[in-house]
């Protein structure tokens, strides 16, 4: 049995507004056996394609290698665009050493809601996959139940959009004569609404589902050269 532990800590800044949430990078990122074009960072697999989409959208001309420079390029982009990364799976066990979400067992989830409370600037969660079993949205729904929260449907078109309401406890303050806020020792409950967007996964396995989408077929009919990569770029451009 292979113990698959996430190799990276969440990458979140104080002013992060969007949070990318996936599951786990391929096992080679945990064992250190990177391929030539892999980047030793979140979504660093060259074949996952997330950074290829971002590169195309923003014309970044990113490096794709094992260098520290490639890592720093991605960190700078995330910081500049107020985007964070916090995959929801902390660890899992696998009988077969591969990147399949369905192959994960004895899964331990990260406390993503806890991070949302810690970083109140986050307004949107971007799932790199939908609600299929062991996908990021699937796990997040399970995670929300631990907090007695649930997703509410906002838009059922692909990419599906939901929202949930996160209670926030804040202290009441009063102004003293010298205008310095003074705590009254009491608290109030505020509500913070967070949007979630379930983007199509960057994995090759999602290509079949893309090919079945009416919009993809329509765009493909207009331009025979249009492909699943182009479709993802079109979708991700709106949200990243």
Task: Give a quick precis of the structure.
This protein has 240 residues and is an alpha/beta fold. The chain contains eight helices and nine strands.
Provide structural commentary.
The protein is α/β, with parallel strands linked by helices and 240 residues long. The protein has a single domain (2-239), classed as Uracil-DNA glycosylase-like domain (Uracil-DNA Glycosylase, subunit E, 3-Layer(aba) Sandwich), CATH 3.40.470.10. The protein is built from 8 helices and 9 strands. The chain has helices at 28-31, 50-58, 68-80, 112-118, 136-146, 207-211, 214-222, 228-239, and strands at residues 2-5, 18-21, 83-85, 89-94, 105-109, 124-128, 152-155, 160-175, 181-199. The protein has a 6-stranded mixed sheet. It has a 3-stranded antiparallel sheet with strand order 1-4-5, with helices on one face. Strand 8 and strand 9 form a beta hairpin. The chain is globular. The two termini are 37 Å apart. The mean pLDDT is 91.
């Amino acid at each position: 049995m292979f113990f698959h532990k996430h190799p990276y800590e969440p990458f979140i800044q104080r002013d992060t507004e969007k949070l990318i949430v996936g599951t786990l990078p391929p096992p080679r990122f945990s064992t250190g056996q990177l391929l030539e074009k892999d980047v030793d960072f979140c979504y660093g697999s060259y074949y996952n394609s997330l950074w290829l989409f971002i590169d195309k959208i923003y014309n970044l001309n990113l490096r794709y290698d094992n260098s520290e420079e490639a890592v720093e390029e991605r960190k700078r982009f995330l910081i500049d665009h107020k985007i964070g990364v916090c995959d929801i799976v902390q660890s899992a066990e696998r009988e077969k050493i591969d990147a399949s979400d369905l192959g994960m067992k004895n899964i331990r989830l990260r406390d993503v809601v806890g991070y949302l409370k810690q970083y109140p600037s986050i307004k949107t969660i971007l799932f790199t996959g939908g609600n299929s079993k062991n996908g990021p949205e699937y796990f997040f729904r399970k995670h929300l139940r631990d907090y007695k929260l649930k997703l509410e449907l906002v838009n059922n078109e692909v990419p599906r959009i939901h929202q949930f309401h996160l209670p926030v406890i804040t202290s009441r303050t009063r102004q003293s004569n010298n205008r310095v806020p003074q705590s009254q020792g009491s608290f109030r409950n505020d509500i913070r609404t967070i949007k979630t967007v379930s983007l199509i996964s960057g994995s090759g396995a999602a290509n079949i589902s893309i090919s079945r989408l009416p919009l993809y077929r329509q765009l493909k009919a207009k331009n025979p050269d249009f492909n699943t990569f182009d479709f993802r770029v079109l979708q991700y451009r709106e949200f990243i």
